[in-house]
Structures are given as C-alpha cells and as structure tokens.
Design goal:
The protein is mainly alpha-helical. It is about 60% helix and about 0% strand. The radius of gyration is 20 Å and the shape is globular.
C-alpha cells in the first residue's frame, strides 16, 4: 500500500508538471528540465530501483497489465535486442533536439511525454509487463543500465507481483546490471557498446551547444548534433580500442569508468548552469546566483560530485545486489526452470 501511495503521489506530480508544460510553459520547463531531470542521473546511480518503482510514465504504461487487459505476449530475444538498440538510437537523436525545441517549448515537451505514454500503453495491451517499454523501448532505460551498476540496496518490486520472466535477464532483478551484461545477440551487444562508449563524449558535446529559440535553417539542426556526435565518436573509439586491449575480465571495470565519466561530466556542467554559471547565459537556469556568489564557489559542489561518482562506480566494491527484489516466479515459470 505504501508503494501504491507513492506511485499515485508521483503520478499526480507528473500530471501537474504536464499541466504546467501545456498551460504555464515557463513553470513546467523549470519543474521538468531544471529540477526533475537533473535529479534523475543521481537517482539512477544510487537507487535505480526506486525510480523504476515510482516513475510516472512507467505507472501509466503498465496500466493495461495491472488492469488485466494485456495479452501478455513475450518478446523473442531478437525482438528484445532490437528494442534495446532502438532505445539507444532514440536517446541519441532526441536529446540534441532539446536545444532547438524542448528546452524552450513547454507544449512540445508535453507532447513528447504524451506520445511516449500513449506508445507504452498501446504496446502494453499486447506484451508482458515491462518487456516492451520499461525494459525495452524507453529511451531512458539505456542510461539506467549504465549508471545503475552498483546501487545502494534493492527495494521491493512495486509493479510485479510475480515474475513471469518477461525479460531475460531481468534488468530490475539481476545483480549489478550494466549494458554489456546482455549479449544474447548482435543487437544487444551493439546497444551496450554505443551507450557505454559514446555517452561521455556525447554529454560533453551537448553542453557546448547553446539553446536556440527557433529553427532558422537546416544549419541549426546540424549545429545541435555536430558537437554531441563529435564527442560521441571520440569516446566510442577510445572505448572500442580499450575493449580490444583489456582482458575480458576487466570489461566490467571499464564500464564503470565510462559510466562515472558520463555522469560526472553531466554534473560538472549541469550544476554550474543551474545556478547561473553555465556556458550559455540562462540555458538550464534554476536559480541565478551569478551576481551573488563568486564563480569559483561552484567547484565546492562539482569537485565532490565528481569524486563521489568515481568512488561509487569505479572504486567502491560491487555489492552484488539488484535494483529491486525479484518476486516469486509464477507456477508455470517454476515448472520450466
């Protein structure tokens, strides 16, 4: 009941943000892009299971299954791999568009959220539990897997009452889940390489592009993709070279290093931007302290944040826990194991 109450609370909070995005865009953008989204990476690192339990979009997309309206079809390994790779591609294509559409346009952001919710609901009428959206097509899921490789502790599963093996391996219930753990086929392998190797450089490049009020020409679209993908290619090539050099047993540590690099880079630029010390004026501004405190004081936050992520994802010993506690298997799944 506690988890259901939390899901309802955050679902209503999400609905309120959606309402603001549509009718009070400046407030909605502040709440969504400058408060909720900056908190999300830290939550993925420390408690990915908590987010998986309370995510308003997940609660919405799982309604057909909770109401007993889903046909409960299971994805093949190939289909699951294709969805994982598609999610990575969607993530890399969508995020740069924040600079020319979503960061300044509340209704457009609301439209994107509504479209994803409707897509997840429609697919949920056919496929089992989290397989097709939360653990498949959701563009946030690849980042969850990259950052959530060493969470603090598992939490109870607030959605699945019993395990139906809808995803194998289950990202929620597999200890120390990371993108390169799943190698069922080439789609899985490629999605793991792209998100792990490319994300640090992509993030670095993204923060070197200013927000634009409108699309003035095709050059505007090229500009918002140019720097992120230059960074993406650079760190991806470094990652691929290191994979070739290192022994297979070191790959988990390498994944942790690139995860720490990605999330550290994000907060290295995002924290200053929140308080008026970003690269581009008021882009991503939460509270302007630019005329109140000296710029160097921001380093008292960014440097400890970087050290924390390096410790948590690279140095800290793996505690062999999953995001959530796996529920009991169904009778059928017990029989076939």
């Amino acid at each position: 009941m506690i988890w259901r109450g939390l899901q309802l609370f955050f679902w209503l909070a999400g609905l309120a943000i959606l309402f603001c995005l549509l009718f009070f865009p400046s407030t909605g953008i502040l709440l969504f892009w400058n408060i909720l989204i900056p908190i999300a990476p830290l939550l993925f690192v420390v408690a990915a299971g908590l987010w998986r339990n309370i995510c308003p979009l997940a609660t919405t997309n799982l309604l057909p299954r909770h109401l007993g309206l889903s046909k409960g079809k299971k994805l093949s390994q190939k289909e699951a791999g294709i969805l994982n790779l598609t999610a990575v591609i969607i993530f890399y294509l969508l995020v740069p568009l924040r600079h020319i559409i979503f960061n300044r346009n509340g209704p457009a952001t609301a439209g994107l959220i509504i479209f994803m919710a409707l897509t997840g609901i429609c697919l949920g009428f056919f496929y089992e539990w989290k397989s097709v959206w939360c653990s498949g097509l959701c563009p946030v899921h690849p980042v969850e897997k990259l950052y959530g490789g060493n969470v603090l502790m598992p939490v109870p599963n607030a959605h699945c009452r019993e395990c139906k093996n809808c995803v194998i391996p289950c990202p929620d219930s597999t200890p120390n889940m990371h993108p390169n753990m799943i190698r069922k086929n080439n789609y899985h392998q490629l999605s793991g390489i792209l998100i792990t190797g490319g994300l640090p450089g992509f993030i670095w490049g993204w923060f070197h592009v200013p927000d634009q009020i409108r699309i003035t020409a095709s050059a505007s679209i090229f500009q918002v993709y140019q720097m992120p993908f230059m960074g993406f290619v650079l760190t991806l090539l470094i990652y691929i070279c290191l994979i070739k050099i290192l022994s297979p047993g070191r790959e988990d540590r390498l994944t942790g290093i690139f995860a720490a690099a990605g999330v550290s880079c994000y907060y290295w630029y995002r924290i200053p931007a929140l308080f008026g010390f970003g690269n581009f004026s008021d882009d991503g501004l939460l509270l302007n302290l630019g005329n109140t405190i000296p710029a160097w004081t921001v380093f008292f936050i960014t440097i400890p944040a970087t050290l924390f992520f390096i410790y948590w994802l690279v140095i800290r010993r793996k505690n062999n826990v999953s995001w959530v506690i796996r529920p009991d298997f169904t009778v059928y799944e017990k029989l076939i194991q």
